[in-house]
């Protein structure tokens, strides 16, 4: 039997021809390049994901601060409304100029349109909430 014709000869199967060797080398280079490109893309993706998470965290902190400030303002305004309501309730019995009237009378009455006598006569000290 000839050495090259033996079908069980493993040396023949392992040694590729020069053309297939160049093809394998080219495939290997492409594989390495593809892996490197994929590694860079994954790295960029992770970096974008981290930046987005950081951005969302900052936005969340800012919204929490804004929410706290708004809650504080609502509390202050609620207290002011209660105070002014109590001042009005206390003043109403003393005020002879505020007899029950219709909405039309309130809107079109000269009494409520800048009458300086009204303002001087009915001045109420509300210094507690003046800014």
Automatic annotation (TrEMBL):
Segments forming a coiled coil: none
Domain of life: Eukaryota
Keywords linked to the UniProt accession: Activator, Cytoplasm, Differentiation, DNA-binding, Nucleus, Repressor, Transcription, Transcription regulation
Database matches in SUPFAM superfamilies: Leucine zipper domain
One GO cellular component term: cytoplasm
Biased composition (Basic and acidic residues): 54-64
GO biological process terms held by the UniProt record: cell differentiation
Chain positions covered by the region annotation Disordered: 1-64
Record keyword Transcription regulation present: yes
Skewed-composition ranges (Low complexity): 10-26
The BZIP domain, residue ranges: 28-91
GO MF entries: DNA-binding transcription factor activity, RNA polymerase II-specific; RNA polymerase II cis-regulatory region sequence-specific DNA binding
Family matches, as InterPro entries: AP-1, bZIP, bZIP_sf
Family annotation (Gene3D superfamilies): 1.20.5.170
Keyword Magnesium carried by entry: no
Primary location: cytoplasm
Annotated compartments: Cytoplasm
Family label: Belongs to the bZIP family.
Protein name (database record): Basic leucine zipper transcriptional factor ATF-like
Organism: Salvelinus namaycush (Lake trout)
Gene from which this protein is expressed: LOC120024618
């Amino acid at each position: 039997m000839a050495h090259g014709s033996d079908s069980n000869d493993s040396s023949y199967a392992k040694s590729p021809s020069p053309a297939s060797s160049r093809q394998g080398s080219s495939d290997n280079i492409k594989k390495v390049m593809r892996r490197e490109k994929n590694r860079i893309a994954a790295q960029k993706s992770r970096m974008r994901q981290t930046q987005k998470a950081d951005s969302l965290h900052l936005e969340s902190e800012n919204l929490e601060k804004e929410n706290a400030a708004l809650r504080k303002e609502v509390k202050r305004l609620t207290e002011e409304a209660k105070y002014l309501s109590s001042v009005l309730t206390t003043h109403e019995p003393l005020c002879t100029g505020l007899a029950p009237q219709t909405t039309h009378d309130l809107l079109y009455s000269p009494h409520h349109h800048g009458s300086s006598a009204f303002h001087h006569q009915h001045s109420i000290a509300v210094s507690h909430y003046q800014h």
